[in-house]
Design a protein that fits this description.
Number of domains: 3
CATH topology of the largest domain: outer membrane lipoprotein receptor (LolB), chain A
Structural class: alpha+beta
Keywords: Coiled coil, Membrane, Signal, Transmembrane, Transmembrane helix
Helix content: 10-25%
Strand content: 35-45%
Number of strands: 36
Distance between the termini: 105 Å
InterPro entries: DUF7959 (IPR058265), LolA-like_dom_2nd (IPR058831)
Shape: elongated
CATH architecture of the largest domain: Clam
CATH class of the largest domain: Mainly Beta
Length: 762
């Protein structure tokens, strides 16, 4: 607008241009006269660097259109949060019941205006506009907010357009003793004259907030006009009532953050946007419980998700209950594109292979199936979010003001698909909220520590423009995922697929072998919690993968136990056969994998590793496999092969534990029984024989048992039918002779004539 006015000014005839240059003011409004200093007992108003206040604005516009005088009254409310040191300004507006919030980002030279807490419009902040208090000034080559006195257009020391208040005297405004000042502003290009009459509370007047060191504005009366043809045109009168003035900011930073789930286009330059990995990072393995709530559904949908990346193999497990189905455990093997679906009620397992993605065959509404949608686009949200695409939206309180969250927002155009119309949403806004863990909590990231390390929520807002291209014809839906119990304590057994091998008759073997402490430790190292058992488990798991050169999914049910007498570690695990449905020639079968493991155990130091202790009693201990101890487990034993006892003791065998122990000569195991019991151990000098229970069924004996059971059932059924038929014929014969049958028995002398029972009046 200023450029257009300047062009018109340059094209004006010289006489008209001279008139503009000679324009001084509208004499009916105010005149620029010599400003006299105020009396010595009057304090010139001072202003703080931070302030928070509200303005009640009443605007009266007097105009003349075609000889008809019009008068328009407009009432508005504004709330200002001003911070000179932070170089920021927030203005909340309510104009004719239309609410909006403006955020001034002076460093970037942008102003973001939010409408209805859903939409954002970004414009440039004006620079060096003396008649706009919110315009920026240049300080040290940086755009900066004006001091508060210039923001209110009360005074300015700018030599180009100075504003010098003139003292008018004292008065009483709204019951407050005030000093009144007058300022006069003139816009020569537009023939506009503006007069402001400011009232400030006297220093001795005690406001409701108590005594303060700076001045308190109370009211401003504004008169303005456009002077044309030697007369005032379009006169405007305004009254500013300053309410709840505070020389500081009471709200915290989280209360001043932008609305939830709003993306501001062009607020930042593309090179100034953030990558999410610069501020947060997901660990290589984690477990989290998630609650999903959509705008379409009233009930929460929950699922438990586990994520692991090991040796370039990525696996995800999630447990949930699909709509109208049993609880399921789904394990996704991204490396081999395999999906294992385990029915937790029936114990059945379905193995599927896909070439186009795990959910490409399912076109589902995102608001009805939020769990499947999250897993389908997990790579976009977690594993590989877009680079240089996020805006930092400040700090906001989450979950009922219990957690302070850092907000990161981005947007995706033409995403995701809409199944019912075969179209896509116009835009999807993605908002992440991350927080700090408590100082006493262990770090959640095992690889690197980032500034924010605990996810709080993921908020998705879907927008679709209707037929009418306006803000009132936009379809909106949303999904919010809340994250709980986020941790990195994830064990390999949580990705166990051995049940799928058993239910689908695939090959597997139970193997066992022994380890020993080569140097640096005694039995106390294990039994007195000097070792990290979880790390020991990881070391053995890695050695098994390396020795057999197989994928992590083929090692299942890894269990470790320590024998204090022999100071040996007993290892038991299940080795699964080739990965199903792949038919890969380069993958080792179960026999070759077992042979390679045996070779690694029997040969030198191929199965040897070092571990530090937790309490530094011993710096490093070395653990090594015992040669010739690998064996295939076929039966379970309750006791060791030879043991000696000198006093009475009791052994507890529980259904929840089942550890295997083996020596180089004979594998010995402890098996779980069907019920928990306490077995007394005989008081003897030496137990020389093993207690074994070995039941082996062949395929022929199993078939015979099934056929025999069927024949016995058929014979029993025929016998029952014969006896029932004979009893029925006997009853009919006796009834014909004169004996009472069941149909002759009557318990009442008066018969009922309807289906409704009635009591006799006796």
């Amino acid at each position: 607008m200023k450029i257009i006015q300047l062009i018109l000014f340059l094209w004006l005839p010289p006489t008209a241009r001279q008139q503009k240059q000679d324009f001084n003011s509208d004499p009916a409004i105010c005149n620029l006269t010599d400003i006299q200093p105020p009396p010595s007992d009057v304090q010139f108003p001072t202003f703080p660097s931070k302030a928070e206040f509200a303005l009640e604005v009443v605007e009266i516009l007097n105009s003349n259109i075609s000889g008809t005088a019009l008068r328009t009254i407009k009432q508005s409310m504004y709330e200002y949060i001003y911070d000179y040191d932070a170089n920021s300004l927030i203005v909340a507006k309510n104009e004719n019941n239309i609410r909006s919030v403006e955020y001034y980002y002076y460093a970037a030279g942008k102003k973001a205006k939010y409408f209805a807490r859903d939409f954002c419009n970004v414009t440039d902040i004006r620079v060096n506009d003396p008649y706009d208090g919110s315009s920026a000034i240049i300080t040290n080559n940086i755009l900066h907010i004006r001091p508060l006195e210039e923001l209110l257009l009360f005074s300015s020391n700018n030599p180009m357009t100075p504003i010098r208040p003139r003292y008018l005297g004292n008065a009483t405004v709204r019951g407050i003793l005030v000093d009144q000042w007058e300022t006069c502003l003139i816009e020569s290009l537009t023939y506009r004259t503006i007069r402001r009459e400011w009232s400030f509370a006297k220093p001795e007047y005690v406001m409701s907030i108590g005594p303060i060191l700076t001045s308190v504005p109370v009211q401003a009366i504004i008169k303005a006009s456009i002077y044309l043809n030697n007369s005032s045109q379009n006169r405007t009168d305004e009254i500013f009532n300053v309410i709840s003035y505070k020389p500081g900011i009471l709200e915290t930073a989280d209360q001043l953050s932008p609305p939830k789930g709003v993306w501001c286009e062009n607020l930042q330059k593309p090179e100034d946007l953030l990558s999410l990995e610069e501020q947060v990072a997901w660990p290589q393995r984690f477990s989290v419980r998630v609650e999903a709530l959509t705008s379409r559904e009233a009930n929460l949908k929950t699922f438990h998700m586990r994520f692991e990346r090991r040796r370039q193999q990525k696996m995800i497990r999630y447990d949930y209950q699909p709509v109208g189905d049993n609880h399921q455990t789904v394990i996704l093997d991204y490396t081999n594109q395999l999906r294992y679906t385990i029915d937790r009620r029936l114990g059945a397992c379905k193995v599927e292979r896909t070439q186009q993605g795990f959910f490409e065959d399912k076109s589902q509404d995102v608001t009805k199936y939020p769990i499947e949608f999250f897993i389908k686009y997990e790579d976009l949200f977690i594993d590989n979010p877009p680079k240089k695409a996020f805006q930092y939206s400040g700090i906001r309180k989450c979950r009922g003001a219990a957690i302070s969250c850092a907000i990161f927002t981005t947007t995706h155009d033409k995403f995701p698909p809409i199944p019912e119309t075969r179209e896509t949403w116009d835009s999807t806004i993605v908002e992440w909220a991350w927080a700090f863990r408590q100082p006493s909590a262990p770090p959640s990231l095992e690889d690197q520590i980032k500034q924010f390390d605990y996810p709080i929520h993921l908020y998705l807002k879907f927008l679709k423009q209707g037929i009418n291209s306006d803000l009132f014809d936009i379809r909106k839906e949303n999904i919010e995922y809340q994250f709980y119990e986020f941790n990195t304590d994830v064990h390999q057994d949580e990705f166990d697929i051995s049940q799928c091998y058993r239910s689908n008759d695939l090959g597997y073997k139970h193997l066992t072998f022994n380890l020993k402490i080569e140097q640096g430790g005694t039995s106390d190292v294990f039994d007195n919690n000097h070792l990290d058992r979880h790390r020991l488990h990881e070391h053995i798991f890695e050695r098994l993968m390396n020795a057999m050169n197989i994928a992590q999914s083929r090692i299942s049910n890894l269990e470790i136990d320590h024998d204090q007498q022999s100071n040996q570690i007993y290892v038991l695990f299940t080795l699964l056969d080739k990965t199903p449905l792949l038919n890969r020639t380069d993958e080792l079968d179960i026999g070759e994998a077992k042979r390679r493991l045996s070779e690694a155990i029997n040969t030198g130091n191929q199965f040897e590793f070092d571990m530090p202790t937790l309490d530094n009693t011993v710096t490093i201990i070395t653990i090594k496999a015992i040669s010739n101890t690998l064996d295939e487990l076929e039966h379970y034993n309750l006791f060791y092969q030879s043991s000696t006892t000198t006093e009475a003791s009791f052994t507890t065998i529980s259904t929840t534990t089942g550890t295997a122990k083996a020596t180089s000569s004979d594998p010995v195991t402890t098996a779980a029984t069907t019920t928990t019991s306490i077995l007394p151990t005989l008081i003897v000098q030496q137990i020389t024989e093993q207690i074994r229970e070995k039941i082996v069924y062949s395929y022929r004996s199993q078939t015979g048992a099934i056929v025999g059971g069927l024949l016995a059932g058929i014979l029993l059924g025929l016998l029952s039918l014969f006896l029932l038929n004979r009893k029925s014929s006997t009853v009919d014969d006796t009834a014909s002779v004169g004996y009472l049958s069941m149909t002759n028995v009557n318990f009442r002398s008066k018969k009922q004539t309807s289906d409704v029972l009635q009591m006799d009046n006796r």
